[in-house]
Amino acid sequence: xxxxxxxxxxxxxxxVIILLSLTGATKSGFTVDLIQRDSALSPSYNSSHTNxxxxxxxxxRSISRANRFKLSLxxxxxxxxxxxxxxxxYLMKISLGTPALEVLGIAxxxxxxxxxxxxxxxxxxxxxxxxxxxxxxxxxxNVSCNSCLCKALNTASCGTDQNNCQYSYSYGDQSxxxxxxxxxxxxxxxxxxxxxxxxxIVFGCGHNNGGxxxxxxxxxxxxxxxxxxxxxxxxxxxxxKFSYCLVPIENSNFTSKINFGNSGLVSGxxxxxxxxxxxxxxxxxxxxxxxxxxxxxxxAYKASSKAVDSNEGNMIIDSGTTLTFLPQEFHNDLISxxxxxxxxxxxxxxxDGLGVCFRSKDDIDVPIxxxxxxxxxxxxxxxxxxxxxxxxxxxxxxxxxGLAIFGNIAQINFLVGYDLKAKKxxxxxxxxxxxxxxxxx
Length: 441
What we know:
Elements: E1 33-36, H1 51-74, E2 79-85, E3 90-96, E4 101-108, E5 115-117, E6 141-142, H2 148-151, E7 157-158, E8 165-170, E9 176-188, E10 196-210, E11 219-222, H3 230-233, H4 235-238, E12 241-245, E13 256-260, E14 272-275, E15 286-287, E16 289-294, E17 297-300, E18 315-317, E19 324-327, H5 328-341, E20 345-347, E21 357-359, E22 368-372, E23 375-379, H6 381-384, E24 385-389, E25 392-395, E26 397-400, E27 404-406, E28 414-419, E29 424-429
Parallel strand pairs: 4-11, 5-10, 18-27, 19-26
Antiparallel strand pairs: 1-3, 1-13, 2-3, 2-13, 3-4, 3-9, 5-11, 6-9, 7-8, 8-9, 9-10, 12-13, 12-28, 14-29, 15-18, 16-17, 16-22, 20-21, 21-25, 22-23, 24-25, 28-29
């Protein structure tokens, strides 16, 4: 399942201001786990799956997700949270309601709405955790259909009682969620001593949901730039700053981290930053890709005839897409250079999902640098090649006729920081399995 689904309809630019009180927050922030979907720490872990099965399934979902992007484009306290990788995607653990009920949502910088499956369930996909029941929470409230919050959603409408705001989303891969827009107390933090309680967070209570979801995920936690994302709703508290550090997929016993607020600032030797470009829809985090180097050979970015944009803001950074997608002609140039740099036979992968693979029992180490405006990000082999089998290694950048996407494999073992106030995103090489290496106060 591709980690957060791309909406066919976009939020308006309406500003939403929500007053929040942080209970239990410390100056250094708090922590929530991001759990890898296919790791031993994930509820969906399947010990019978081979490494090839896990990677191929993740890549297949990534391709489906990229297609959804294309369709949708056509149409000051500190908080830290942990992230769980989920078959190339990352799950964020929160709690909703009073008493609190645990929710595992896909952490997604490419979508806005926070939503989870709810009782009563008209149609729901199977999930491992109990469904959230708003009637069992003393802090749940409906959003009025006449409120500015409801009007922020183009697909919202009034319920049968002409008061409750109802939403309906459909996605490019026929996935969907429908339900009530509500407000609820959200608790976030990986330990009791580092938890904060956030009242009146707007979220979707989905009663009719379906699509390519796994049993581990209860819904989606939108971290995009739109008005109803978690980042936007926490704006007054976190100063519009957050960062994450994603552990390698094979490190199944480690959780990743996501930091909000002051601890989300990225600094230190080796940090590079590139401007965020303001474009519609406001959900996505746009940057400008100027080129990519293979060894000492630099290739200037060029868009295919079908690409969405070849100018400023021609690429989005997305935590929910596994692979990196590049325009076909530009990708062809890179592959030609990669082939010359590798002493291995080029082959097709067994299921024709990736296309560009090499027969090699040895690790492939080709220096590849991504050139964003003002920021040269030097990738390591773990960011560009995936070992699918004992003697099969595949390139994790693939061609696309849509918008270029910088996926989460390319972001592994980087501290990636978003400073929406300063309008920039920063990259700092890091060992993301070493949790203590990226705590900033």
